[in-house]
Amino acid sequence: MEALNRGVPHRYTGVFQVIESQLINVFLYDKQHEIRPEALAVVALDNSFCQFVLRDGSLLVDNSMHDDRLLSSSFRGVVVAYHGVPVTNPRGGLYGTLCHFDFIELSLAQPQFELLQAAGGLLYPYLPHLDGRVYSAPQVARAAAG
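^ that's the sequence the OP posted. Answer follows.
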């Protein structure tokens, strides 16, 4: 995650696994090396920006306040820049999302978007595969570490 994040201005790069109607944050790289915000550990799919990645194949938003698709999300205006792609298995099945995001307006250059897309297709074997249970933040952290 650090290598992907190094080439972009975004503070965060993360992977979220879809489990039923939730997104579980399994990896998060933060340029500031702070503890993951609790609100990002488990996110309701229908409140997430990731839902549009899953529906449309990507979501590229420089400023969430200017995107009407995000009107109903409580993250709108909090997560301002969001650029995400699906994470798939080798057979094309869906695992979740890979995204760069930040609390300020940022764009993503086309070469970095293409790298993000390529990574979304390659990461699957290296990710934890959580079962369908709902996890607390400490459980997610333990599962992702181990």
